[in-house]
Amino acid sequence: MNTHGWLILSALSLLSACTTLSPEQCQQADWQRLGQVDGGNGQTLSRLAQHQKSCQKAGIVPDVAAYQQGYETGLQSYCQPQTIFSKAMQGFGNVNVCPADLQADLFKFKQVPAAYREARDELERAEARYDRLQSNLYFSNNLTREQYLYYRQQLRFLRMDVLEARTAVNWRASEVQRLQQQYQLY
User: Fold this and answer.
1) For residues 129 and 160, what is the distance between their CA atoms, to the nearest angstrom?
2) Mapping DSSP to helix (H, G, I), strand (E, B) and coil, where does residue 185 land?
3) Measured between alpha carbons, how far is residue 110 from residues 52, 64, 113, 116 in Å?
4) pLDDT digits (tens, 9 = 90+) for 54-105
5) Considering only CA atoms, which of 39, 37, 7, 41 is closest in space to residue 25?
6) What is the pTM of this model?
7) Which of helix, strand or coil describes residue 75?
8) CA-CA distance, 138 to 118, in Å (whole number)?
9) Could you read off the pLDDT of 167-182 as tens digits, one per residue?
Protein backbone atom coordinates (compact mmCIF):
# COMPACT_ATOMS: atom_id res chain seq x y z
CA MET A 1 0.00 0.00 0.00
CA ASN A 2 1.37 3.43 -0.86
CA THR A 3 1.79 6.32 1.58
CA HIS A 4 -1.42 7.98 0.42
CA GLY A 5 -3.38 4.78 1.13
CA TRP A 6 -1.94 4.52 4.64
CA LEU A 7 -2.86 8.13 5.38
CA ILE A 8 -6.45 7.55 4.32
CA LEU A 9 -6.66 4.33 6.33
CA SER A 10 -5.22 6.10 9.40
CA ALA A 11 -7.68 8.99 9.06
CA LEU A 12 -10.62 6.59 8.76
CA SER A 13 -9.58 4.65 11.84
CA LEU A 14 -9.26 7.90 13.80
CA LEU A 15 -12.75 8.94 12.72
CA SER A 16 -14.21 5.56 13.60
CA ALA A 17 -12.60 5.79 17.04
CA CYS A 18 -14.90 8.76 17.71
CA THR A 19 -18.04 6.68 17.21
CA THR A 20 -19.08 4.24 19.89
CA LEU A 21 -21.68 2.39 17.82
CA SER A 22 -22.21 1.69 14.16
CA PRO A 23 -25.59 2.52 12.58
CA GLU A 24 -26.46 -1.20 12.64
CA GLN A 25 -25.59 -1.44 16.33
CA CYS A 26 -27.73 1.61 17.04
CA GLN A 27 -30.71 -0.01 15.32
CA GLN A 28 -30.30 -3.31 17.18
CA ALA A 29 -29.23 -1.89 20.55
CA ASP A 30 -30.63 -3.23 23.78
CA TRP A 31 -30.19 0.07 25.61
CA GLN A 32 -30.59 -1.42 29.06
CA ARG A 33 -27.95 -4.06 28.35
CA LEU A 34 -25.63 -1.47 26.80
CA GLY A 35 -26.00 0.72 29.89
CA GLN A 36 -25.26 -2.29 32.08
CA VAL A 37 -22.10 -3.09 30.12
CA ASP A 38 -20.91 0.54 30.23
CA GLY A 39 -21.63 0.82 33.96
CA GLY A 40 -19.98 -2.55 34.57
CA ASN A 41 -16.86 -1.31 32.80
CA GLY A 42 -16.70 1.85 34.91
CA GLN A 43 -17.54 4.20 32.07
CA THR A 44 -18.80 7.64 33.00
CA LEU A 45 -22.41 8.51 32.25
CA SER A 46 -21.09 10.78 29.49
CA ARG A 47 -20.70 7.58 27.50
CA LEU A 48 -24.44 7.84 26.78
CA ALA A 49 -23.84 11.20 25.07
CA GLN A 50 -21.23 9.51 22.88
CA HIS A 51 -23.71 6.79 21.97
CA GLN A 52 -26.36 9.43 21.25
CA LYS A 53 -23.97 11.24 18.93
CA SER A 54 -23.12 8.01 17.09
CA CYS A 55 -26.77 7.03 16.73
CA GLN A 56 -27.90 10.50 15.69
CA LYS A 57 -26.10 9.92 12.39
CA ALA A 58 -28.31 6.87 11.85
CA GLY A 59 -31.46 8.70 12.92
CA ILE A 60 -31.81 6.56 16.06
CA VAL A 61 -32.70 8.04 19.45
CA PRO A 62 -31.43 5.93 22.37
CA ASP A 63 -33.80 4.85 25.12
CA VAL A 64 -32.23 6.99 27.84
CA ALA A 65 -34.34 5.59 30.70
CA ALA A 66 -33.47 1.99 29.81
CA TYR A 67 -29.79 2.89 29.41
CA GLN A 68 -29.70 4.64 32.79
CA GLN A 69 -31.42 1.72 34.49
CA GLY A 70 -28.88 -0.69 33.03
CA TYR A 71 -26.05 1.69 33.82
CA GLU A 72 -27.01 1.77 37.51
CA THR A 73 -27.12 -2.05 37.57
CA GLY A 74 -23.70 -2.18 35.91
CA LEU A 75 -22.28 0.28 38.42
CA GLN A 76 -23.45 -1.92 41.28
CA SER A 77 -21.24 -4.72 40.00
CA TYR A 78 -18.39 -2.36 39.09
CA CYS A 79 -18.29 -0.48 42.41
CA GLN A 80 -17.04 -3.48 44.36
CA PRO A 81 -13.59 -3.67 46.01
CA GLN A 82 -12.49 -6.67 43.91
CA THR A 83 -13.47 -5.02 40.62
CA ILE A 84 -11.89 -1.67 41.43
CA PHE A 85 -8.72 -3.44 42.61
CA SER A 86 -8.52 -5.65 39.51
CA LYS A 87 -9.07 -2.73 37.14
CA ALA A 88 -6.49 -0.62 38.99
CA MET A 89 -3.93 -3.42 38.76
CA GLN A 90 -4.46 -3.30 34.98
CA GLY A 91 -4.01 0.47 34.95
CA PHE A 92 -7.69 1.31 34.66
CA GLY A 93 -10.49 1.96 37.05
CA ASN A 94 -12.39 5.01 38.11
CA VAL A 95 -13.79 5.33 41.60
CA ASN A 96 -15.41 8.65 40.68
CA VAL A 97 -18.19 6.90 38.73
CA CYS A 98 -19.33 5.14 41.90
CA PRO A 99 -21.97 6.59 44.20
CA ALA A 100 -20.52 9.31 46.43
CA ASP A 101 -21.20 7.34 49.63
CA LEU A 102 -18.99 4.47 48.35
CA GLN A 103 -16.11 6.47 46.91
CA ALA A 104 -14.17 6.97 50.13
CA ASP A 105 -14.32 3.26 51.00
CA LEU A 106 -13.30 2.22 47.48
CA PHE A 107 -10.49 4.75 47.08
CA LYS A 108 -7.81 2.51 48.66
CA PHE A 109 -8.65 -0.28 46.19
CA LYS A 110 -7.75 2.12 43.38
CA GLN A 111 -4.95 4.06 45.07
CA VAL A 112 -2.77 1.20 46.36
CA PRO A 113 -2.50 -0.62 42.99
CA ALA A 114 -2.09 2.71 41.17
CA ALA A 115 0.82 3.65 43.46
CA TYR A 116 2.39 0.24 42.80
CA ARG A 117 2.06 0.67 39.03
CA GLU A 118 3.49 4.20 39.25
CA ALA A 119 6.48 2.91 41.24
CA ARG A 120 6.99 0.11 38.72
CA ASP A 121 6.88 2.61 35.84
CA GLU A 122 9.42 4.83 37.59
CA LEU A 123 11.72 1.83 38.04
CA GLU A 124 11.50 1.11 34.31
CA ARG A 125 12.33 4.74 33.50
CA ALA A 126 15.29 4.76 35.93
CA GLU A 127 16.64 1.51 34.49
CA ALA A 128 16.28 2.88 30.96
CA ARG A 129 18.19 6.07 31.89
CA TYR A 130 20.94 3.98 33.48
CA ASP A 131 21.17 1.59 30.51
CA ARG A 132 21.25 4.48 28.03
CA LEU A 133 24.05 6.28 29.85
CA GLN A 134 26.00 3.07 30.39
CA SER A 135 25.71 2.23 26.70
CA ASN A 136 26.82 5.73 25.71
CA LEU A 137 29.78 5.51 28.06
CA TYR A 138 31.02 2.13 26.93
CA PHE A 139 30.52 2.70 23.22
CA SER A 140 32.12 6.15 23.12
CA ASN A 141 35.74 5.84 22.05
CA ASN A 142 36.70 9.49 22.03
CA LEU A 143 35.92 10.67 25.56
CA THR A 144 38.38 12.74 27.48
CA ARG A 145 39.34 11.56 30.95
CA GLU A 146 37.17 14.30 32.50
CA GLN A 147 34.18 13.26 30.41
CA TYR A 148 34.72 9.62 31.31
CA LEU A 149 34.90 10.41 35.03
CA TYR A 150 31.82 12.62 34.76
CA TYR A 151 29.82 9.83 33.10
CA ARG A 152 31.00 7.30 35.69
CA GLN A 153 29.81 9.65 38.43
CA GLN A 154 26.45 10.07 36.69
CA LEU A 155 26.17 6.28 36.45
CA ARG A 156 26.64 6.03 40.22
CA PHE A 157 23.85 8.57 40.74
CA LEU A 158 21.60 6.71 38.33
CA ARG A 159 22.40 3.40 40.02
CA MET A 160 21.19 4.95 43.28
CA ASP A 161 18.01 6.09 41.50
CA VAL A 162 17.46 2.51 40.31
CA LEU A 163 18.00 1.12 43.82
CA GLU A 164 15.59 3.67 45.31
CA ALA A 165 13.02 2.85 42.64
CA ARG A 166 13.38 -0.89 43.34
CA THR A 167 12.88 -0.24 47.04
CA ALA A 168 9.74 1.77 46.26
CA VAL A 169 8.40 -1.04 44.05
CA ASN A 170 9.02 -3.60 46.78
CA TRP A 171 7.33 -1.41 49.38
CA ARG A 172 4.32 -0.76 47.11
CA ALA A 173 4.12 -4.46 46.25
CA SER A 174 3.94 -5.27 49.96
CA GLU A 175 1.08 -2.74 50.32
CA VAL A 176 -0.76 -4.47 47.47
CA GLN A 177 -0.18 -7.84 49.09
CA ARG A 178 -1.39 -6.57 52.46
CA LEU A 179 -4.56 -5.17 50.87
CA GLN A 180 -5.15 -8.45 49.02
CA GLN A 181 -4.80 -10.48 52.21
CA GLN A 182 -6.84 -8.10 54.35
CA TYR A 183 -9.78 -8.03 51.95
CA GLN A 184 -9.23 -11.41 50.29
CA LEU A 185 -8.72 -9.86 46.84
CA TYR A 186 -7.21 -11.87 44.02
Assistant:
1) 12
2) coil
3) 30, 29, 6, 10
4) 999 889 999 999 999 999 999 999 999 999 999 999 999 899 999 999 999 9
5) 37
6) 0.78
7) helix
8) 30
9) 999 999 999 999 999 9
